[in-house]
Design goal:
It comes from Actinospica durhamensis. The structure is a single chain. The protein has 240 residues and is of the alpha+beta class. It has a domain of 140 residues. Strands 1-2-3-4-8 form a five-stranded antiparallel β-sheet, with helices on one face. A three-stranded antiparallel β-sheet has the order 5-6-7, with helices on one face.
Length: 240
């Protein structure tokens, strides 16, 4: 994830959310299947056209569901690029963000799943174990006898830092979050920031933003290749 920008909306770079595993896996499957399909057509010709058409279909699906999905958190809205459609949700229309089994954006009318932000229970367990280890280390450091300061050698002088230190100095933070939970936290900050901006604007501007609209449009960049691959497969079966 990139860090949110603080420049005006026209020049703002949005925070981009993409699942690294899905991106890498989808890219590898896409390249492998495309290479295999082209190799079959070159080497076998029409003898194995069905196999080539199946590989083309798998490649288009891997691109649509693995490489293409992304979420862009702008200053005023969230743009969700799912496999088959792109949804633009103004922050003022978002009623809740949840990341239980999947990342979902809730509005008053409906809810939208964000494909680009995977929810991993394993990732959450790993983060929780790391957090518990850091808390245990911190508690041990707080209860360890000190050579100077404190009462009868225990504790630390008033105002001193207590807790496990990083190698580069400073206190190690235990407030780590999984990828999905971090996305929820950052987007909630975006929502609060946008609401603060709206409260500070005059009433004329508030009336224009009183009716937020969610826009949904199909993704031609993914639908067209999938449809073409399906047509190619049907033609290959008929011809063969």
């Amino acid at each position: 994830m990139t860090s949110p920008a603080t420049s005006p909306q026209s020049a703002e770079k949005p925070t981009v959310y993409r699942g690294l595993g899905a991106l890498i896996g989808g890219a590898l499957v896409t390249l492998f299947c495309l290479g295999g399909a082209i190799d079959l057509l070159v080497e076998e010709g029409s003898a194995d056209i069905i196999g080539a058409s199946i590989l083309f279909l798998v490649a288009t699906l891997a691109f649509a569901y693995g490489v293409f999905p992304a979420a862009f958190a702008h200053e005023d809205r969230l743009v969700v690029r799912n496999p088959m459609r792109t949804i633009s949700v103004p922050w003022s229309a978002v009623t809740n963000l949840t990341a239980k089994l999947s990342f979902i954006v809730h509005t008053e009318q409906t809810r939208y799943t964000v494909w680009a932000v995977p929810v991993s229970l394993r990732d959450r367990r790993k983060v929780e174990r790391a957090r518990l280890r850091e808390r245990t280390r911190q508690q041990r450091a707080e209860g360890r006898p000190q050579r100077v300061g404190g009462y009868i050698g225990y504790g630390a002088p008033f105002g001193s830092e207590v807790g496990p230190r990083r190698r580069g100095g400073g206190i190690e933070s235990i407030d780590r979050l999984s990828f999905a939970d971090q996305a929820v936290s950052e987007m909630n900050e975006r929502i609060m920031h946008w609401n603060d901006l709206q409260h500070g604007r005059p009433a004329a501007g508030a009336s224009a933003a009183a009716q937020p609209k969610v826009t949904v449009r199909p993704n031609v960049a993914t639908i067209a290749p999938v449809v073409a691959a399906l047509v190619f497969l049907i033609v290959a079966v008929i011809v063969h």
